[in-house]
Amino acid sequence: MLNLRDGRKSVIVVGGGFSGTLFALAASAQEGLDVVLVESARTAGPGLAYGACGPFHLLNVPVARMEVGLKPTFTEWLGQSGADLTDAIAEAGGDLSQAFVPRALFGAYLTARMREALATRGDRLVRLRGEVVHVTDRPAPSVQLADGRRVEGTHVVLATGNLPPKPPRCRDGGLYEDPLFVPDPWAGEGLHDLPPEAPVLLIGSGLTTVDVALLLDEQGHRGPIWSVSRHGLLPQAHVRGGAFEPFVDPAEASSPLRGMRLIRAAVARAADKGVPWQRVMDAVRPSIAGVWSGWSEREKARFLRHARAYWDIHRHRMAPRIARRLDGLVASGRLKVVAGRIAGFERAPGGLVAHIRRRHSGSALTLEVARMVNCTGPRSDFQSFAFPPFDGLRDSGRILPDALGLGLETRGSAVLDRYGHASDWLYALGPLARPAYWEVTAVPEISVQVHRLVEDLARPAGRDTLPPERLMADFVNLGEGI
């Protein structure tokens, strides 16, 4: 068993991707906090988002939106990194802060900050490599690793980031066990031995699909790439220029229908002024958490069912260079996007067959492909699957999965138990806290959440922590941005 120093708050962080790494860096910089960061990967920092990517995968936001309060800043580090940023800076009109740079560079930046902190902060920051399989508070907050090690502290922070995709719901015909089905495109297998002319089916049409299509293109793949999703919508592109003031009052957007009407009216006003709709979507950002929290569960479910796909492609956009490459794949006919549902799969000689029901016509489409790749995005329905340590926390009532399958119920960053009580020892960061805030998946919001939790934990015993509403106000204070 590993114990940190007595008489100090000691925080165990589960997960060493962006959320966990930033928390560990910020918390261990506080004189009153010790941190143990537990991560199964060889390197802490990049996680999947900034580690499982190639140099052709770019950030979906400019450099300025990736600043997280570390020194040197990401912009400063980039200037000293020696990376070839010629194309990115040219596209941004010479302004590095507005450039879309490779995602892997942000991962390298986080890794460098972690290595520096481990070398200089002594036993205030400890890095353990392992998989956490159990979390409990009895007799004290602690985690157990798969190899049997136990780490005890005073608080536990869950920062596992995005979990692997959920399998598609249909008659699978044994698909999930077939080696030609790739359940997780970032698991490091399934695409490297693909024949160049082989047809591929990507299940989904969001940003993960874009990443995988570019990966195939970069590998020299020349065969047809099919993408199927319910709406058949690809993400939109960022554009430069224009400005639009934040305009959404949560009280006026009291339902998804009213909120969408406000946005459409604002887009029309912006168009009259020659301002692109992208600036309108950026201006919505400060109000998103407040609007979401004001909706009933029924209204949230209606939004997810009818508007989520349209929201996602307009809010979470592609870098201009990525959009141009994707447009080229579509224009050449190599990438074909289909709106529809997968009715079932079956094995065929040398491949897999997918039976698709088109969305609007209801007509059937049968595709025989050499690979099927699950690009549906990260799973978040903690109520229905066994994934340690969440299954044990759920079964013991220490966490409360939300009814809409978005993540864990929280107040501030404190996890709620099955009775709705906020924990005083267990916290959740990033995508796990999505039920309360809807969009707490991007770097600016996660950074605010991390620093606010660090501030709360660093407070001396007996001093009140900040109310949960403060975090919502901090999201508003982020201002507009992409």
The number of helices is 15
Helix content: 25-40%
Structural class: alpha/beta
N/C terminus separation = 44 Å
How much of the sequence lies in strands comes to 15-25%
Q: Uncertain regions: pLDDT < 50 for 5+ in a row?
A: none
Radius of gyration: 23 Å
Biggest sheet features: 7 strands, mixed
How many strand segments?
20
Strand order of the largest sheet: 4-3-2-8-20-19-18
- Global geometry: globular
- Mean pLDDT across residues: 92
Characterise this structure.
The longest helix is centred in the N-terminal third of the chain and has 18 residues, at 103-120. Helix 1 links the parallel strand 2 and strand 3 (33-39). The two termini are 44 Å apart. The chain has helices at residues 18-28, 74-81, 86-91, 103-120, 207-218, 256-272, 277-284, 288-294, 297-306, 308-315, 320-331, 390-395, 434-437, 443-457, 469-477; strands spanning 2-3, 9-14, 33-39, 125-129, 132-136, 142-145, 150-152, 155-158, 163-165, 181-182, 200-203, 225-229, 335-348, 351-358, 364-369, 371-374, 378-379, 410-411, 414-416, 422-428. The chain is globular and about 65 Å long. The model has no long low-confidence stretch (mean pLDDT 92). The strands form four sheets. A seven-stranded mixed beta sheet has the order 4-3-2-8-20-19-18, covered by helices on one side. The chain has 15 helices and 20 strands. Helices cover 31% and strands 20% of the residues. By secondary structure, the protein is an alpha/beta fold.
